[in-house]
Design brief:
The complex is a heterodimer of chains A (253) and B (188).
Chain A (H helix, E strand, L loop, with lengths): L2 H25 L10 H34 L3 H12 L2 H11 L5 H8 L8 H26 L3 H8 L4 H9 L4 H16 L5 H4 L14 H12 L1 H26 L1
Chain B lengths: L10 E6 L5 H9 L10 E2 L2 E2 L10 E4 L10 H11 L6 H10 L13 H14 L4 E5 L8 H14 L3 E6 L10 E6 L2 E4 L2
Parallel strand pairs in B: 1-6, 1-7, 4-5, 5-6
Antiparallel strand pairs in B: 2-3, 7-8
Helix pairs in contact in B: 2-4, 3-4
Classes of the chains: A mainly alpha (253), B alpha/beta (188).
Chain lengths: 253, 188
């Protein structure tokens, strides 16, 4: 028996058994109709859309940062970029709330132009982006580090600026890495609870007026109705997530 | 420790065993590496502290290419970066002279074909110096290619330093330097 295969199998089992157990209980002994109500599917829809937008924002804003870290040693910058992932996430929610509140000049300015992050889709996306961006950066950095640097040096030698080299040489050859990292980042965003429980416990904006993000709704079901509806809603959420991830990976291939 | 002095023009061959410092020297000249001390002068310009993109030095290694471009767009990519006007006839002349009778995405070409395109692209972008690191050995009909490459560089007034493991490649060079343990010796 290959010992490594055995250890790998056991490690994988530790990760997936609780998930399969939850699926079994949610659709079996603990099944409760509240757990697959219209409300649940609306909250999953909100979570999927906001997480996908957060992942897209991460790609747009943080790909250059990941590339910079890959090509330039910057321990302090790397440590700073990890902070949102390494502190309790309710702190992120509180921070966003304070920064965007009338207590700060920036918050006053945002409100004066009609931008409100509290209980809004925008606030939800901002929180999800901040907590999932470090995961995106940490996935893209090794991808860029593993990329052959010869084409970049060649392009620079042909007179291309560093910006042009990034846009015209690095990015067109990074599609697979960006897709992988954004999927990981999106998965992280979908599972977020701490920060969004503060900034967007529910959304008071159309087309999601009164809808909770899925992790918040599951928590709410647990506290209001007990285990059954929470477990069923969790099983539905897991199933949708698994199907979506499989579809995205099929698209990737 | 690398202590090399290459003070010549035109088509210069650099030979030496693995680890003798050939690639390090080219990386220093191109700006990929920064010297601890010393000075790099190109046509009376001190380029020691210039970034790669402002040196007018093009470096070609076996992996040098813009993989997603097709051959024709690749060949004029460098010149367009520099805002140079590219004559169609000149591109055709270079393609014919360097044996580029193929098309398609550069990433799908064989190594030798890719290297022909990379060298042609550098020529058309008109740098002051082209550095070719261990690249010529992968090209078919190497002797003919080197002769054609040299003719184009002479016409465009571009200097070349190329490294090779094959001493016979130096027969087409105007000068031949040998590197050994980081020290350069001028053979001719």
């Amino acid at each position: 028996m290959n010992w490594l295969k055995l250890v790998a199998g056991l490690s994988l089992a530790i990760l997936v058994i609780p998930i399969f157990f939850l699926l079994y209980e949610g659709f079996g002994p603990l099944r409760d109709p509240i757990g697959y109500s219209y409300e649940v599917f609306r909250s999953i829809e909100l979570t999927l859309i906001s997480s996908a937008i957060a992942a897209t924002v991460s790609v747009a804003l943080f790909t250059p940062l990941a590339y910079y870290f890959a090509r330039n040693k910057n321990s302090i910058g790397e440590a700073l970029s990890d902070i949102p992932a390494s502190i309790p996430h309710p702190i992120i929610g509180v921070a966003i709330l304070v920064i965007a509140s009338p207590l700060t000049p920036f918050g006053k300015f945002l409100l004066s132009i009609g931008i409100n992050v509290f209980d809004s889709v925008l606030g939800l996306i901002v929180a999800l982006t901040i907590v999932s961006a470090p995961i995106y950066i940490n996935s893209m950095q090794p991808f860029f580090q593993s990329m052959n640097i010869a084409p970049e040096n060649y392009a620079l030698g042909l007179g291309a600026s560093k910006f042009r080299t990034f846009i015209s040489v690095v990015l067109p050859n990074s599609g697979r890495g960006i897709l992988n990292a954004s999927l990981i980042s999106m998965s992280r965003a979908m599972s977020e609870f701490g920060s969004i429980a503060i900034i967007a416990y529910y959304v008071l904006q159309q087309p999601f007026y009164g809808v909770n993000p899925a992790p918040v709704l599951i928590f709410q079901y647990y506290t209001y109705y007990g285990l059954g509806p929470a477990v069923t809603a969790s099983a539905v959420m897991i199933l949708v997530s698994i199907v979506m991830m499989i579809l995205l990976r099929l698209v990737k291939h | 420790m690398l202590d090399a002095n290459v003070s010549d023009e035109r088509f210069i061959c650099l030979t030496g065993k693995n680890g003798s410092g050939k690639t390090t020297l080219l990386n220093l000249i191109s700006g990929i590496l920064t010297p601890d001390e010393g000075r790099i002068t190109l046509n009376s310009r001190n380029i020691t502290n210039l970034p790669i993109e402002r040196r007018l030095v093009s470096i070609i290694t076996p992996d040098s290419c813009i993989p997603h471009l097709d051959v024709d767009r690749h060949m004029v990519w460098g010149a367009k970066n520099k805002g140079l006007k590219v004559e169609h006839d000149y591109v055709t002349e270079i393609k014919t002279g360097l044996g580029i009778y193929f098309d398609g995405k550069v990433r799908k070409l064989s190594l030798g074909m890719r290297e022909r395109v990379a060298i042609a692209t550098s020529l058309i972008s008109k740098p002051e110096l082209i550095l070719v690191d261990e690249t010529l050995s992968n090209i078919d009909n190497r002797r003919d290619f080197i002769v054609a490459f040299k003719n184009f560089t002479m016409k465009a007034n571009i200097d070349v330093i190329f490294t090779t493991q094959s001493p016979e490649d130096s027969s087409e060079a105007d000068h031949h330097y040998q590197l050994e343990s980081g020290k350069s010796t001028r053979l001719f």
